[in-house]
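User: Can you write out an input/output pair for a complex, sequences first and structure second?

Assistant: Here is one pair. Inputs:
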Amino acid sequence: MKQQPAPGTRYLLPVKTITAIAIILSVIAVTTTAFKDRNGFTGNNAKNDDINSDSVKSVIAFMQVYKVLMSPRCMNCHPAGDQPLQGDDSHIHTMNVQRGKDGTGVYALKCTNCHQPTNVAGVNTPPGNPKWQLPPADMKMVFQGKTPHQLALQIMNYNQNGHKNKKQLLEHARDTLVKAGWHMGEGRMPPPLTYKNFLIAWDTWINKGGYSPNPSFK
Amino acid sequence: MIPLNVNRKAYQVDVSPDMPLLWAIRDVLGFTGTKYGCGVAQCGACVVHLNGEAVRSCITKVSRAAGQQVVTIEGLSENNNHPLQLAWREIDVPQCGYCHSGQLMSAAVLLRENPNPTDKDIDDAMAGNICRCGTYLRIRKAIHLAAGMQQMGQKNG
């Protein structure tokens, strides 16, 4: 005959079930934290608003962001090598232009020797912006060749993104050099999203947790 | 009126702020040593120094140079005795000569920033200056010679 517990010590669920639930909850808590760490919430980006996190919405938004970042208008200045790329086919910049230590070129071939503060009229003339340059040699912030997973991790990593925290990352999408990607002068294809939709996707990706897509996403 | 300082002399030029600096230098101020090549910053014939940097004057607006220091080939040295000019003469670098004011202005920035350049440094600095006569090997040789002259000059005080 099953023994009844003494009054006052009665549980809603059997002790074994409660123990099992507690273990499962602990495992979920630990793996969620580990997942976030893997996704680059390091340094100043660790202060994330968990209430707003949504990995699904975040990843869907990043896949839109990724299309823009890998378009020639963004990727050409985030090359894998030490030479900028050029054109809609992202060929290596003519004139043997080099990144240089601070990303502004070398000797007589510094970026702003040709790239003016504004676009020059006509086809195949140098596009312009007052901040024209590549990332510096000590933090190259390469886009070229990166998978969505790799690029999302890199951008969210404070030590690989130009030391930007979450607020600065959100601001970065409003930077004049980023905006210039949509106004690169005659004969250059704009990125595949409008600037407005890019901003929505960028903000959503970061505000929903800055998650990186699964490594199998291409 | 736009204030321009060209070859260490102040001018006031009555031109549109959108005018290419090359036009103002050649047609308004008469410094015709700087040449027009392609007009789209692709060849380097029009290189002048703007605050010491080798900008392409064919697409640089006069407004960008307002109140800044511009140096053309005429102002590279007092008596055509910049080490590069001496080396160019010594090796007889030019053939037709059309691109060479731009070549010299670019090379001057290289030598200022790197007094002892390697062949690779020269390529990195000079690949944006095109020479239809193909004098590239003599240009490289002359830059090495000028680098030596510059170092000797510094040693001799």
